[in-house]
Write a structure and sequence with these properties.
Helices cover 27% and strands 16% of the residues. By secondary structure, it is α+β, with helices and mostly antiparallel strands. The protein has a 5-stranded antiparallel beta sheet. A 4-stranded antiparallel beta sheet has the order 2-10-6-7, with no helix packed on it. The longest helix has 28 residues. The two termini are 70 Å apart.
Length: 350
């Protein structure tokens, strides 16, 4: 019986060719920028550095806070709410009926100067619970119309105060329509008149760029429902600063707007007689009206918040600095060797 051997192929077997091409690597090309290896400041926050930083903030913030509080303390401010006293006592509906009637709304108020007030004395009116930041209210105006005479008919955003009897209203919109219209006149107990200057009470940028010198009021407050103040149709909008001040809407429901300036000094104990016209309707929405007389410091009006905020931050940093100092001396912790950090061992990253 012979052993049979199977036939063999004379040619050697070749490896099969790959049917798919080689995949391209998604690895980005190396650069120091993509691998974040460019020179950079990498500080090591040691206890000394942290304590020094907190003490530096304390040294800077505390004096600023003290100076701010002293500046605010030097401001003399007189605040008088008059909406309740200048309307008949009774229910809310009675007050609304009174403010909407043709009755005489003249009101006399007496103010006493608590401290010496150096000119200029700023006269503000303050409104509470008036939401000038309401979306529909803020959008009800036409900046193009206010700025350019040729855009007089651009009233698409002014509804419902866009036209009256088919003619365009200038300025249009609810913001202008609801303009504050209470008036104030001042005199001392010696019957010396205190004239109120209204020149320069608005922002210069608003007068020059947002309200045109060739744009004049037209058909304003000529509808059946009167919202607020009337405007002189012979004076351009750029010169009607009461309107410009009112059109810069407030962000909060309680706000003050500048009415004018008194260019006379007032001594402590002086009595100011105020004759006002209580025309503006805040009774419909439970609003409040206040008359404010105030001086100003290098920081502005009376505002204790800035000084308190600086003192709070400075005091907190001082407490943290003292706490870390005590921990550092009482229970110190050994610091590691910075030479073992990755960017110190291989600055190139490879």
């Amino acid at each position: 019986m012979s052993n049979a051997t199977p036939p063999t192929n004379s040619t050697s077997a070749e490896p099969p060719e790959s049917s798919s091409p080689m995949r391209n690597s998604k690895r980005p090309k190396y650069s120091r920028f993509t691998q974040q290896e460019l020179p950079a400041c990498k500080p090591i926050l040691t206890p000394r550095w942290v304590i020094s930083a907190f003490m530096l903030v304390t040294i800077v913030f505390v004096p600023i806070g003290i100076a701010s509080l002293f500046a605010s303390h030097d401001v003399v401010e007189i605040v008088n709410r008059y909406d309740e006293n200048c309307a008949p006592s009774g229910s809310r509906s009675d007050k609304v009926r009174f403010i909407q009637s043709d009755a005489d709304k003249t009101c006399n108020r007496t103010l006493t100067v608590p401290k010496y007030m150096k000119q200029p004395i700023y006269v503000y009116y303050q409104l509470d619970n008036f939401y000038q930041n309401h979306r529909r209210y803020v959008k009800s105006r036409s900046d193009q119309q206010l700025r350019n005479r040729n855009d007089e008919n651009d009233t698409s955003t002014c509804k419902p105060e866009d036209t009256v009897n088919g003619t365009t209203i200038v300025p249009c919109g609810l913001v202008a329509w609801s303009m504050f219209n209470d008036t104030f006149s001042f005199s001392t107990n010696n019957n010396v008149q205190l004239p109120v200057t209204k020149r320069g009470i608005s922002w210069k940028s608003d007068r020059e760029h947002k309200f045109g010198k060739d744009v004049f009021p037209k058909n304003f407050q000529n509808g059946s429902l009167i919202g607020g103040a009337h405007l002189n149709e012979s004076i351009p909008l750029s010169a009607q600063e009461d309107l410009i001040v009112w059109m810069r809407t407030a962000a909060l429901p309680t706000f003050r707007k500048l009415y004018g300036k008194i260019e006379m000094d007032l001594r402590a104990g002086d009595t100011i007689n105020v004759i006002m016209q209580n025309n503006y309707n805040t009774y419909s929405f439970n609003g409040k009206k206040k008359l404010v007389l105030s001086t100003a410091s290098w920081l502005g009006g009376k505002n204790n918040f800035i000084g308190i905020a600086y003192l709070a931050v400075g005091g907190l940093c001082f407490v943290l600095a003292m706490t870390f100092t005590i921990i550092y001396f009482v229970k110190p912790r050994r610091l590691g060797d910075p030479s073992y950090l990755s960017w110190n061992r291989s600055p190139g990253g490879h």
